[in-house]
Structures are given as structure tokens and as C-alpha cells.
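Sample intake sheet
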Amino acid sequence: MAWSFHIADVRGIPLGIHVTFAFLLFIVAAGWSPLGPAGIAFGVALMVLLFASVTLHEFGHALVARRFGIPVREVVLLPIGGVALLGRNPRSAVQELAIAGAGPAVNVAIAALLAPVLILLGEPLTLTPAVLRPAAGTELSLGEAVRWLLSANVGLVLFNLIPAFPLDGGRILRGVLGLATDWHTATRWATRTGQVLAVVMGGYGLAAGQFVLALIAVLVYLAASATHADEQARAVLAGHRVGDACNRHALSLTETDRLSSVVRYLLTSYQPDFAVMRGPDLVGVVLRSDVFAALATRRDDVPVSALMTTCPRVDADGTLADARTALEDASAGVAAVFEGRRYLGLVGLDDIREAEAILAFMRVHEPAGAPTTGAGAPASRPTSVETRA
């Protein structure tokens, strides 16, 4: 994520902290400053412990996601919480329920560990608001710190269980709905519910002067809207074969071609990536990004075999939605399309986005009553969408 700094790797997952986190510590220090230097240190320590809980919460999501084979790009700590950046969204109700529930479960476990500690310290088992500034009569004690952290973890559980997608509660709602209906419908209802609750949260936050809550509501609304749009796109793509969307007449290279040949192709065609062939067999791909990296770092006219890389393989009979998932899983920009063992062409994320835009337009502008096949394309004309890669 932009403006974040890498601070550690936990079980192979990068952990970063956003630069704006420093502002939060400054606000906390200012809030506790009436209690002197000891108060400032106490308040900052509480915030560090709170975000340690947030970090464990996010790694609960991340580690369960990885158990399902979903790649995790990184975990980032922000002033308003944390986020586990997954390579793709879960595609089943069971995955969604397990991943979404893992985060709050971590905070429940932390609270369950802190409650006995509070009792052992001889403190009453009560909760206090986990705010950024001390209440009147606050003592700088271990018991107060444990009570504050216990309250904060309980608050994290309750807030995250609000059924406002993409909060954990909203994702759990999608998982529950997904057990009873198809995934597209479950996502539509969960994201719409999230948008409505975000509007309510935002209105309350503005009326009560809780501007952080209003900001969170805006982020929730935007994230729910983005997920809704993504699912709409996936529904459009799910009805069309990858084999109908790859360019079977694209320019290709051989292992003896050189960098200068690729440069000429880039200048004279719209094709960004090139298959490297050995007879009828695909041996690799040369990506536009790798070509420009080579131009920036070397002067010799190297063979394309020095530039080529591998890419995911997708089946021609699979859907465009499947191809997009494969690309997201592999963090790749292009995939090779095969029909059995026969190579057909390349398809990239940009191609899939273009296909989605074309197919969505065709779906909206079909003549009323036109006969359709499969995903709504007219039976009287082909449904293929040829792309540029």
C-alpha cells in the first residue's frame, strides 16, 4: 500500500505501517499530556498494545485465507485500524465465514486472557470506554491498562460484527446468505446492506461530532460499492469462455528473436505482451514491462530468451471470471490460454476488463425480446470478444 513502511514479515506475510499512524500517536500523546510525561508514555503504550491486538486480528484473517489458498499481499496498520490485503476475495460461503470470523475470534481470545489477569490484580471486572484521552480520575496503573485493553478488544469485536460490508460482520452476513443462495445474490444483498448502514453511521457521526466514525462510514460505503461493482463484473464475465476472448492471431516470437524485434512490434502494434514459441509449443512470454526495464538498464540487443518469463495457464473452456481469478491468484498480468495441450493465445487483465465493458454494453443494449444463449448474448451472432493480447 502506498505511503506504508515495511516493518516485519510474519510467517511470510509482510507487515507494514502507514505513515499517517504517526499522527495518531501525536493525538494520543496530546490527549494524555495533562498527566505529564508519565501520562504521555502510558497513553502511547496503550495505543501500541491496542494495535498489537489489531495486528493479531488481521493476521487471524490472513492466515486463515492462506489456508484456503488465497494469497495475502500484506497486512497494513492504519490510524483507523488495520487491513489484510488479500490477492482475491473468497468465492464460497465457507471460506468467507471462516476468514471473516477469524479476526473477531482473535479479539475474543485476547479478551478471555485479559479478564482473569484483571481479576488476579484484584480489580473489578468492569469495562471502561477505550478513548484516546484519560477520563477524570484515571490512574496510571497496570490494572487500568489491562481494563482499557480488555475494553478495547471487546469494542473491536462489537464494532467489527456490525453487518456493514466490508466489516467482518458484513462478510459474515455474505457468508450466511451464501449458504442459502448463490454467491452473486449474497454479495449484492451484503454490499447493499453495507451501503445503507454506512449512510446511517456517517449521519450519526456527523451529528454527534464523531468525525472518525464518519470517515470510517465513508470508507465502508466506498468499499461496499467497489465490491458490488466487482461482483457485477464477475457475473458478466462468468458466462463467456476464455477461448472466445483471446487473440488467436497475435504476433509471436521465437527464442532467437532479439530485444530490437520486440521494440519494433511495440512501436507498430497495440500488442503489449508476446508469446515466445518453439514450434507449436509455448516456452515463455515477454512482457511490455520487462522490455522497458531492459531498455532502461542495458544497451545490448539481448535475445528474448533473456527477457521471457512464465505465466499462468488457463483452459479455453473456462470462463473469463475463472481467468481473472487465476491471474489474481498468481499476481500476474497475463495468462496463456490452452485447449487441451494446444496453445491458443494470451489473455491479460486489461483484455478481461475490456471484454467486461463490451459485454456489459451488449447486455444493456440488446433489443428487447432478442433470443439469447447462455449469458444473454444473441443467438443470431457470435459472442466472442477478441482482445489485443
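Comment: Residues 1-161 form one domain. The CA atoms of residues 313 and 360 lie 26 Å apart.
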